[in-house]
Amino acid sequence: MKSIIWTIAGSDSGGGAGIAADIKAIESFGGHACTIITALTAQNSMGVEAINAVTIEVLESQFAALESDMPAKVIKIGLLANIQQVEFVAAKLAHFKANWPLPPLVVYDPVAVASSGETLTEDDIIPTLKNTLLPLVDVITPNTQETQILTGHYLIGPSAVRDASEAFFNLGVGAAVIKGGHWDYPQGYCVDYCAVPGQEYWLGNEKIIAPHNHGTGCSYASSMAACLGLGYPLKDAFILAKAYINQGLKVSVRIGQGIGPVAHKGFPHDLADFPTVIEAGSWLGKELELEPWDRPVVAEFSPSETQQLGLYAVVDNCDWLKLCLENGIKTVQLRIKNSDTPNLAEQIQTAVALGQQFQARVYINDHWQLAIEHGAYGVHLGQEDLDTADLVAIKAAGLKLGLSTHGFYEMLRAHNYQPSYLAFGAIYPTTTKDMTGQIQGLEKLKHFVPLMKAYPTVAIGGIDLIRAPEVAATGVGSVAVVRAITEAADPLQAISQLQQAIKV
Ligand SMILES: Cc1ncc(COP(=O)(O)OP(=O)(O)O)c(N)n1
Ligand SMILES: Cc1nc(C(=O)O)sc1CCOP(=O)(O)O
Ligand SMILES: [Mg+2]
């Protein structure tokens, strides 16, 4: 069933922002948009002529109709036209959060000031917002101006952005997404910030000069709401929303005599529309004073000689490794998770030699120092390893590098390093490793593969003989398995059947 997203917002008679933008963005991501209209604004591409707030009775009737039949997974809030509306909506949200079996997530785009500069609210709602609504908000998506109004922090640099997000947390907000569309820092770039207590994400891309940008704030917040409704983690919703807006800005056109609306072009499929994940050590990271600033982002690892890595066996000792190679598997990983394994170095040395003997691609998981020491073909690393491994040394030694990714954000982060292949996981639930909260499913894999078509791609996690054909049908270049081989009643038969099953 489609996930239901309510949008509580104003109607823009010009069709560019508010409810109109919200519906288009939510539907673009496959959500179902339900609407609770707070005001019938009279506006066009030139500006706002009237607000026309609805009464609390009209608001109540919309809530009642939806609550009895179509409860929301995510509630996105835009324009609240007056203090009574703020108080009423806050009371409703408090009730839903306390009483619904599945409490809704609340995404709030504080439309305190219209992009045209005209205020859309009838009175000073800021104190009421802070006291009643913000403590119920899971994700707030203000622009720089709205951030300044709500937190009192003037965004003169990265540390002020951090301070502002802290101020939101102190007001009871769960996560802050501060949009940098109006912020020219670094010059010529558009940098967005997302934070939950203890964790922050920065995204950036060259500023897209698009005069027709009406409705970007509403569309951004609705895209995030839709993605959260689909079960994407916050960091993935963040990157998808930004890609959606970039895509829309690039093709937006004039409608009317003034500022036209951002375009709505469906789920973002073009890598060129995705922002860069800003890492400490990159030039953008240095501009933003991200730490540690002295760990350079190393890119362009030795390219793979083929896009199709085929059946990829992930095993924990050299007996299995040899059996796989003897039976024709050309991509194998030695994955020994216990660093105290007494003969670890010996096993890695043997694995390297077996790879050479069978002219196969043998990757060493985790132990990159020993992999370099013993002249391995390649290493496979996880996202955490990117913060600690000596990537300069791995690249200098000419080793291939495979990187794990779990979702859009990690995929775009891995893309910064231009590894030899990208692995997407966990596609299905698995008992080999705790992947709670990181199961991607086939539908996401269908997005990952074409986005990253420049790389050899690998799917991993819970893949067996039955699932292998549908995984291979996504176009992924390799299917990686542990248990489908090591726990098979007849491993040799399993290898042969898996090889057949992934031929598309
Ligand atoms: C092909 C492939 N993909 C993903 C992984 C997982 O690697 P990582 O995230 O480093 O986790 P551990 O395997 O170290 O637990 C992999 N090993 N191989
Ligand atoms: C080692 C590993 N890494 C994963 C990831 O998603 O990064 S899933 C996984 C386990 C794969 O084992 P099986 O084929 O037995 O499900
Ligand atoms: Mg690892």
Automatic annotation (TrEMBL):
Binds 1 Mg(2+) ion per subunit. One of its GO terms (molecular function) is hydroxymethylpyrimidine kinase activity. 2-[(2R,5Z)-2-carboxy-4-methylthiazol-5(2H)-ylidene]ethyl phosphate binds at residues 430-432, 462. Mg(2+) binds at residues 366, 385. Gene3D superfamilies: 3.40.1190.20, Aldolase class I. One of its GO terms (cellular component) is cytosol. It catalyses: 2-[(2R,5Z)-2-carboxy-4-methylthiazol-5(2H)-ylidene]ethyl phosphate + 4-amino-2-methyl-5-(diphosphooxymethyl)pyrimidine + 2 H(+) = thiamine phosphate + CO2 + diphosphate; 2-(2-carboxy-4-methylthiazol-5-yl)ethyl phosphate + 4-amino-2-methyl-5-(diphosphooxymethyl)pyrimidine + 2 H(+) = thiamine phosphate + CO2 + diphosphate; 4-methyl-5-(2-phosphooxyethyl)-thiazole + 4-amino-2-methyl-5-(diphosphooxymethyl)pyrimidine + H(+) = thiamine phosphate + diphosphate. SUPFAM superfamilies: Ribokinase-like, Thiamin phosphate synthase. Residues 317-485 form the Thiamine phosphate synthase/TenI domain. Condenses 4-methyl-5-(beta-hydroxyethyl)thiazole monophosphate (THZ-P) and 2-methyl-4-amino-5-hydroxymethyl pyrimidine pyrophosphate (HMP-PP) to form thiamine monophosphate (TMP). Belongs to the thiamine-phosphate synthase family. This is Thiamine-phosphate synthase. It comes from Pseudoalteromonas tunicata D2. The lineage of its organism: Bacteria, Pseudomonadati, Pseudomonadota, Gammaproteobacteria, Alteromonadales.
